[in-house]
Design a protein that fits this description.
The chain folds into two domains: about 120 residues, Response regulator (Rossmann fold, 3-Layer(aba) Sandwich), CATH 3.40.50.2300; about 100 residues, Arc Repressor Mutant, subunit A, CATH 1.10.10. About 40% of the residues lie in helices and about 20% in strands. The protein is built from eight helices and 14 strands. The strands form four sheets. It has a five-stranded parallel sheet with strand order 2-1-3-6-7, with helices on both faces.
């Protein structure tokens, strides 16, 4: 079996796949084509890819359904490739779990650069320095094992949800700017939409059971960023 990263390219136009797959091979990747949702699901059942490039307009359905399925099952990096270029479509792709969004026609070099950026961001963020788990009110976070408990119940967080929570908890009681969160949790050279931060904050709030209008944990500081409730605030 090849030790090259495997890219599942879900695309129904061979004129796009063939030249781009050659570029992927030159850059050290292995590429597998799926022209339909059915072929993509069969490929996923056969071998787990290291990366997914996903077209939304497929002959047998909407690629957004596959994006949702993938994200529910794993943290595999996903870049959506589509002719749908409106702001609403971009945000929807991010909300479904895509890591980035590229509008057709696209440059192969740009997509590969974005793939490498996503792969860098996919590496876990450094854990906050701590001697064992950190407790803030009913929340307990263990950076070493990357586990989180809320009132004795363990939360199931994605990689980036945990990284975002760990960064906010490391600065509990302080306002952390949107720019700092993007640089520390995603990548200092991030060039995609910062709306991915808002999406992950919303997901995190949902798992914490936090009401944005009356938050216990995660506060929005408008025009600046976010603040996690400090440990001393739970004493009052």
């Amino acid at each position: 079996m090849s030790d090259r990263p495997l890219v599942l390219f879900v695309e129904d136009e061979p004129s796009i796949f063939e030249p781009f797959s050659a570029a992927l091979r030159r850059e050290g990747f292995e590429a597998v084509l799926a022209g339909t949702l059915a072929e993509a699901r069969a490929a996923l059942a056969s071998r787990a890819p290291d990366f997914v490039l996903l077209d939304l307009g497929l002959p047998d359905g909407d690629g957004r359904d596959l994006c949702r399925e993938l994200r529910a099952a794993s943290d595999v990096p996903i870049i959506v490739l589509t002719a749908r270029g409106t702001e609403l479509e971009r945000v929807l792709g991010l909300e479904l779990g895509a890591d980035d969004y590229v509008v057709k026609p696209f440059s192969g070099a740009e997509v590969i650069a974005r793939m490498r950026a996503v792969m860098r961001r996919a590496r876990p963020a450094p854990a906050p320095a701590a001697n064992g788990p950190v407790a803030i009110g009913p929340l307990r976070i263990d950076a070493a094992s990357r586990r989180v408990w809320l009132e004795q119940q363990e939360l199931q967080l994605s990689r980036k949800e945990f990284d975002l929570l760990a960064e906010l908890v490391a600065h509990a009681g302080e306002v952390v700017s949107r720019e700092d969160l993007m640089a520390r949790v995603w990548d200092e050279n991030w060039f995609g939409s910062t709306k991915t931060l808002d999406v992950h904050v919303r997901w995190l709030r949902g798992k914490l059971g936090d009401d944005p209008s009356a938050p216990r944990f995660l506060h929005t500081v408008r025009g600046v960023g976010f603040r996690f409730t400090g440990a001393d605030e739970w004493a009052h």
